[in-house]
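Budget justification aside, the reviewers requested a transparent look at the raw inputs and outputs of the sequence design task funded under Objective 1. We therefore reproduce one unedited record. The lines immediately below are the structure tokens for a 283-residue chain.
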């Protein structure tokens, strides 16, 4: 009986949608369905930051709806920021799924109630994100540094690591390059004190999740812009040793790439970018 009622309700919904000139919801929006490829990229407005000089910074991210496909969408008609020139430093290479707080636009103090619009068109769909100065969407830099949880709080003495990347002078298709990030930190948070192991006569509590272990100072790599996928020997987390975190990268196509390194002390993080011009393979 329940099955017949559910079927009848489904048919009725379809009739109503057709009567209103609307089709059934697109498969993209069925939460139980996962798509490996063929889906679009949705830009997101992730909040705004008040700057000391009176200007403001609008912060954007994105959701690549695909679970496998990564997309290269160059700045231009299909990847544009308005008003202003279409290329304002936005990502052009989109990894799978959600990536928050990756792109920033600085606006003047007298911006008022205007908007900055980021539009991405791919696989037959256009999506937009609208950046504005609504009071309810103001955020702190600390929110980004803590990946959204504001812990540790502002009164905590821990400060994020500092990071810089050794410049790359020559890069060619097919030849690996060495990426070296130089990282320093204040030594906080202190490494956790190892707990004593349980003995035979001590009862063990049941746990539904494994405890997260702090890795210590580390670096992860992220492709931000580029015409094709960059392959890292180790994208991260790469542990910092003697102030350096080192990995190798390989490029499949020539062009200009921007790679981003994120240094984390386990609680707070900060980023640095490097631009690399990759030449065609030497013959």
């Amino acid at each position: 009986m329940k099955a017949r009622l559910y079927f009848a309700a489904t048919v009725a919904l379809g009739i109503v949608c057709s009567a209103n000139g609307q089709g059934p919801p697109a498969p993209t929006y069925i939460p139980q369905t996962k798509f490996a490829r063929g889906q679009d990229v949705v830009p997101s407005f992730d909040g705004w930051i008040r700057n000391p000089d009176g200007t403001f910074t609008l912060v954007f991210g994105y959701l690549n709806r695909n679970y496998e496909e990564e997309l290269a969408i160059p700045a231009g008609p299909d990847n544009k920021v308005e008003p202003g020139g279409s290329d304002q430093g936005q990502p052009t290479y989109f990894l799978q799924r959600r990536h928050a707080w990756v792109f920033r636009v600085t606006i003047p103090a007298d911006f008022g109630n205007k908007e900055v619009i980021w539009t991405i068109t791919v696989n037959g769909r256009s999506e937009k994100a609208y950046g504005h100065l609504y009071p309810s969407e103001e955020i702190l830099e600390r929110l980004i540094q803590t990946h959204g949880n504001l812990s540790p709080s502002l009164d905590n003495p821990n400060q994020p690591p500092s990071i810089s990347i050794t410049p790359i002078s020559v890069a060619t298709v097919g030849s690996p390059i060495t990426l070296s990030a130089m990282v320093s930190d204040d030594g906080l948070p202190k490494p956790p004190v190892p707990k004593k192991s349980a003995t035979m006569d001590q009862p063990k509590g049941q746990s539904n999740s494994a405890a997260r272990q702090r890795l210590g100072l580390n670096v992860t790599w992220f492709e931000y812009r580029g015409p094709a996928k960059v392959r890292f020997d180790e994208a991260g987390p790469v542990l910092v040793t003697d102030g350096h975190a080192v990995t190798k990268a390989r490029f499949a196509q020539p062009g200009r790439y921007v790679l981003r390194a994120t240094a984390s002390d386990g609680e707070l993080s900060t980023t640095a970018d490097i631009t690399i011009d990759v030449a065609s393979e030497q013959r």
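Residues 2-19 form the longest helix (18 residues). The CA atoms of residues 55 and 88 lie 17 Å apart. Computational costs for records of this kind are itemized in the attached budget.
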